[in-house]
Design goal:
single chain, Arc Repressor Mutant, subunit A, Endonuclease, Chain A, 7-stranded mixed sheet, two-stranded antiparallel sheet, 10 helices, elongated
């Protein structure tokens, strides 16, 4: 939806994807923007150059390294008005989605960064982010509710990659036949799982805590969505909640 609207006001498909990624990430490297947008690195650099020429992103130096920051979405509207070749339809279309674009704008040193994902491919991006962070993962999981195609990807790609990168996971999950099979693979899959009674703790979503991030994932068919919250304080509090839950879960461990 947003990509189509941005294309209507003059951005190419790749430029729109790169601009949205820059909005969501805040201050980020070209590589981070490339990965988040799904645009290959060379094309991403080209898009960033064009967006910079349009005044939609700017390059900053952080410890000698180049980072990119998206400008406020209202800059898009200013550009349209300056060109004098726009149509009333383009202006109205952009004004309609400005609030949504502004909600993505994420450049602040104090406010948490929040990224929203939808569908199976979106959830894969969340799991991929846990690999990129390379930190221990603390998880409340409802793995038994995972979509079949996503589960195949997790089994064949994600878990082997997590093991290869030596990322340890501590997991609390409701007990079931599936969960018990899952737990038996712990030593092979670099994980420690505690099972809790499913009737008392019927988790229906997954929460991953890693680094300064918290990912919340819903596998429900009608939702199939997730968010990543990047905040030191939020992650620290969720980590304490997990530690408290872990102590409680140990009483059920056999």
């Amino acid at each position: 939806m947003l990509i189509q609207q941005l294309k209507q006001v003059g951005l190419s498909d790749k430029q729109a994807k790169v601009y949205l990624a820059a909005l969501e990430l805040g201050e980020a490297s070209a590589l981070q923007i490339s990965r988040h947008s799904g645009v290959n690195r060379v094309t991403c650099y080209q898009a960033l150059d064009r967006l910079a020429a349009e005044g939609l992103v700017r390059e900053v130096k952080v410890e000698g390294k180049s980072r990119f920051v998206a400008e406020m979405p209202k800059k898009l509207l200013e550009n349209l008005l300056d060109r004098k070749i726009n149509t009333e339809r383009q202006i109205l279309a952009l004004e309609k989605v400005l609030p949504e674009l502004e909600s993505l704008y994420n450049y602040s040193e104090v406010k948490p960064k929040i990224r929203f994902y939808e569908g199976v491919e979106g959830l894969k991006q969340i799991y991929q982010d846990t690999l990129e962070e390379k930190k221990e993962i603390l998880a409340f999981t409802a793995y038994h509710r995972v979509d079949a195609s996503l589960k195949r990807w997790l089994d064949k790609y994600y878990i082997p990659q997590r093991v290869k990168r030596n990322i340890f996971a501590k997991v609390i999950a409701p007990s079931s036949e599936f969960a018990r099979k899952f737990k038996r693979l712990d030593s092979r899959q670099n994980r420690h799982t505690l099972l809790v009674p499913a009737d008392k703790f019927p988790f229906s979503i997954e929460v991953n805590i890693y680094g300064n991030k918290v990912a919340i994932i819903s596998f429900v068919k009608k939702e199939m969505m997730g968010v990543i919250i990047e905040s030191k304080e939020v992650a620290a509090t969720f980590r304490l909640i997990f530690q408290l839950a872990w102590q409680g879960a140990e009483q059920y461990s056999s």
